[in-house]
Amino acid sequence: MSRKPAHTADSLLDAAADIAAADGAAAITMSAIAAATGAPSGSVYYRFPDRAALLSGLWLRTIERFQRGFLAALEIDPPHEAAVRAAHHVTDWSLRHPTDAAVLLAGPESFGSAQWSAEAREAAAARQTLVNDAMRNLADRLGYRSEADRERLALLIIELPYAAVRRSARNPDADLAGMAQAVDRIVRDAMEVG
């Protein structure tokens, strides 16, 4: 019977996320991950051949985790409720996953996206295409045909909730739950959902 590895890719990425949330992406190094997990540096390099692979792995894992619920919310019927639920997902997910939310708020550039492998950049672009397509589909279901209407929809259900999350991330005493409720109310009012 084979033993389960002591230091999995996920446990190393968890440590990277913790470091990013506490000290920023620049603090993520292979030696910092080894020290945080107690893993031999060889184990870190075995899972991630270089820092760029580690950083892209963290970004891609985090964005996939976030998008799972966001994309599902965009498919809800009726479409007005989908918009409300998608916006709510941004704040709710951030409340439940503050470390991962800190990674997303930093953005891919903070994680050295210019140095990622072509494969990692393609995977990140594919993840963005999923969101773009789902947003386009929701706009169509809502009857939004103009580019201005589509842009307003993105501002309402993506940018507004992220602004609330960013604002509370800068203030440790902020009431993210209260901000989430305020965002929900704004989006419901804008979408004319009771």
TrEMBL record:
Residues 6-66 form the HTH tetR-type domain. The keyword DNA-binding applies. The keyword Kinase does not apply. One of its GO terms (molecular function) is DNA binding. This is TetR family transcriptional regulator. Signal peptide: none annotated. It comes from Nocardia terrae. It comes from the Bacteria. Residues 29-48 bind DNA. It holds the Pfam family TetR_N. Keywords: DNA-binding, Transcription, Transcription regulation.
